[in-house]
Amino acid sequence: MGYVAVSGGEQAIAASLDLTELKRVGAGRSIEVETILAALPELVEQVESEGSLWAPEVAATAVKQAQGSVEEAVFLMRAYRSTLERLYTSRVIDTDTMRVDRRISAAFKDIAGGQILGATRDYSHRLIEFELADETPADVRERAAELERALAAEPQAEAAAAQTRVPRVLTYLREIDMVRSYPLDDTEPVDITKTPLAFPAPRSVILQALSRGLTQAVIAIGYAAIRGFGLSHPTVGELRHGTVAVTIDAPGSDAPTEDDAYYLGAIPVTEVESLIVSDEVDDRGNHRSALDVGYGLVVGDDESKAIAMSVLDHSLRADDVRYPTQDQEFVLYHIDGVEATGFISHLKLPHYVTFQSKLDAALRSIAEPEKGGEADA
Amino acid sequence: MRKNYNFAFLDEGSKREIRRAILKGVAIPGYQVPFASREMPIGRGWGTGGLQLTLSCIGPDDTLKVIDQGSDASVNAVSIRGLVRETTGVETTTVTQEATLIQSRHRIPEHPLTRDQLLVLQVPTPEPLRTYEARETVTKRLHAEAEYTGAYLELFEQIVRYGTTTTGADHPVMVEDRYVMAPSPIPRYDNAKLNMAENLTLLGAGREKKIYAVPPYTHVASLAFDDYPFVTEEFEGARCHRCGATGVYLTQTVDPATGAQIWMCSDTDYCDQRVEAARAAATARKGGDAR
User: Fold this and answer.
1) End-to-end alpha carbon distance in chain B
2) How would you class A143 by CB atoms within 10 Å of its CB: exposed for 0-12, middle for 13-18, buried for 19 or more?
3) Looking at residue A369, what is its pLDDT?
4) Which residues of chain B neighbour A369 with C-beta distances below 8 Å?
């Protein structure tokens, strides 16, 4: 049947998969998962963040299998995630206990606990280091030893080492009543991977959807919100990076305590508290300008995503929806990478039957001008 | 780091959850039941809703058929069939009558289905009111209040502008006089097959996270007006170039040998069965002649 455009599917798919696999191995070189973990940590973290699964080895394997396509690696992670039983719920993670290796504030110069620049590219010059092209494993080891020596000699070395229980910038602002206060909400959070979206979305849903959202989409929509299609121009009250411990209650215990909890491991996170000026009306109808907080927390290192998340967290709680960036359905329905790329890519599937139906309808509208048409309308 | 997958891919907890949504859908024909759609190992928008229904319902004794736009050989049908076979080990078939579970994208087989067959349709856009109302919160309310003026108004505007309705596939239907439902982008020609069908039809939208159902013997009517009745696609004078069939859904194509425009059955199994039957009849005749 030569004239059915897509047929013989079985052999065609097998050959196509072979071609794809040949692209991975054809050049005669491969990369070890350990090397990916060591050399491309931010890529692995992005795949875990959007894949919403903390599993470095699996993520690095996905990166390898996907030949470096983030979209594909995230997809692999999400599909794998669907097969995993949820055995435990972790204890609430208090980010006050984060082991902080970087924290900055754009609101205040001197903050309790001090600003810790940590590792950042913010002040690097974006010049390609061409000599990296010829770097050997021996060079890498030598460079590492050299850097460790130099950093140990820094007078700030001790202060720069990871700290726990770093005070928050916002605590000060809360003390002087400059930040809009909200009653503590201890409602059980909704798990968006087990509950379909419903609107208006509770805060837990907004935060989860943003945190695992497509990184570039979160950043782009967050950018739109601060540039012109939104009202939030935030000040980064505090941005911190570090690791947080994940613990579960000892199974079977009746009165679980923190001391009995099992430690599962630690995950790197970036946390942002943004301050956004907003209008507040008191009981007597008087307006005052108060600071509202937007919150961002993402797995890994992506500070742009965390900041954009804090912007969108705030704009999606707007009472008065004026811009798409404040519209929960607009943002939350379209920010998931697997969904966006899935629906876009489905356009490549055959649409022979549906297109025939469209043609038929179009032909019918041409064939029946005497019955209707603009002249009659 | 060796890992194995569960029977039918999904974990049992997820399958139970999806089956509960299916039961609710069957109990309220045409109502879109939200469910926590899982990510699947195929593209989201490539039949993940249908696939989750199939994987949640399938048992080791089932016989599976998967078609895409009528064809068993279409690449995505092959891919989905392969995935289900690999994760369940069930028998697969292309013969409509042999299948106990049929997953399909955008077609209902020509051969009428029976009470022992389950039809799963893949749905890209489950919300029939989405074309004129973008917001889920609003469409949910419109369904709750059975406020379907907009759906009819859309058809009315088409008639005013073009003198005819111009819906292609996915022409909305009224289910059991209660819910307006997107039948998935099956051609208008297939809409009638949903009405008072012997089989259960499940519809799954993975990306949009909705499951809905048309139980057996449910009234399903395509939206239309008394003076502008519902019309199906027209194939007047056309017949299948391969099996000669008329009165089935055909798609246009070009004969690569002659360059002429020809028509083909969209349901390739139906076409194959007719060709096979004609060949058998011819052989029988020849055999008769020889004797």
Assistant:
1) 68
2) exposed
3) 59
4) 163
Closest CA to A100 of A174, A169, A167: A167
Query: Is residue B170 domain-shared with residue B27, that is, in the same domain?
Result: yes
Chain B residues with beta carbon closer than 8 angstroms to that of A84 = 11
- Do the domain assignments include residue B234? no
- Residue B275 lies in domain: 250-290
DSSP A150-217: HHHHSTTHHHHS-BSSPPPHHHHHHHTT-B-------PPPP-TTTS---SSPPHHHHHHHHHTS-HHH
Pairing of strands B63-68, A235-248: unpaired
Tell which residue, B43, B214, B273, B159, has the closest CA to residue A347.
B43
The 10s digit of each residue's pLDDT in A173-232 is 888 888 887 888 889 999 999 898 889 999 999 999 999 999 999 999 999 999 989 876
Q: Is the dihedral of CA A5, A7, A8, A9 positive or negative?
A: positive
Give the residue-averaged pLDDT of B185-213.
97
Tell the residue number behind the tokens 């491309």, with chain if given: A40
Cα(A202)–Cα(A192) distance, rounded to whole angstroms? 11
> Tell me, what's the pLDDT at A373?
45
Do A299 and A208 meet the contact criterion of CB atoms below 8 Å apart? no
pLDDT of residue B16: 95
Which residues of chain A register pLDDT less than 50?
1-6, 372-377
- The ipTM is 0.75
Q: For residues B113 and B197, give the distance between their C-alpha atoms in angstroms, rounded to a whole number.
A: 8
CA angle A93, A95, A99 (to 5 degrees): 110
Please state, in angstroms and rounded to a whole number, the distance separating the CA atoms of residues A20 and A346: 19
In a domain, B69, yes or no: yes
Retrieve residue A323's tokens. Answer: 């811009």
Catalytic residue among B25, B43, B243, B244: B243
Task: Count up the domains in chain B and report the number.
Answer: 2
CA distance A322 to A226: 14
Of B95, B101, B4, nearest to B54 by C-alpha is: B101
**Does a structural domain hold residue B5?**
no
Residues B139 and B269 in one domain: no
Collapse the DSSP code of A115 into the 3-class scheme (helix H, G, I; strand E, B; otherwise coil) and give the result. Answer: coil
Find out whether B161 and A372 touch, Cβ atoms under 8 Å.
yes
Query: Residue A369, preceding bond cis, omega within 30 degrees?
Result: no
CATH code (residue B62): 3.40.50.11310
- Contact assessment for residue B61 and residue B97, using Cβ atoms and an 8 Å cutoff: no
Interface list for A 338-357 with B (CB within 8 A)? 338-339, 341-346, 349-357
Which tokens in the block code for residue A103? 């924290």
- B160 and B254 together in one domain: no
HSE value, Cβ hemisphere, 13 Å, CA-based, for A34: 0
Strand partners of residue A246: A265
Q: In chain B, which residues have their Cβ closer than 8 Å to the Cβ of A194?
A: 17, 36
Residue carrying the six token digits 């004969």 = B255
Catalytic-role residue among B25, B30, B204, B206: B30
Of B40, B160, B188, the CB nearest to A357: B188
State how far the Cα of A330 lies from the Cα of A340, in Å rounded to an integer.
13
Beta sheet of A235-248, edge-to-edge order: A99-104, A235-248, A262-281, A287-299
Band of pLDDT at residue B87, cut at 50, 70 and 90: very high
Is B4 within a domain?
no
**Euclidean distance between CA atoms B269 and A276, whole angstroms:** 62
Q: Are B106 and B184 in contact (CB under 8 A)?
A: yes
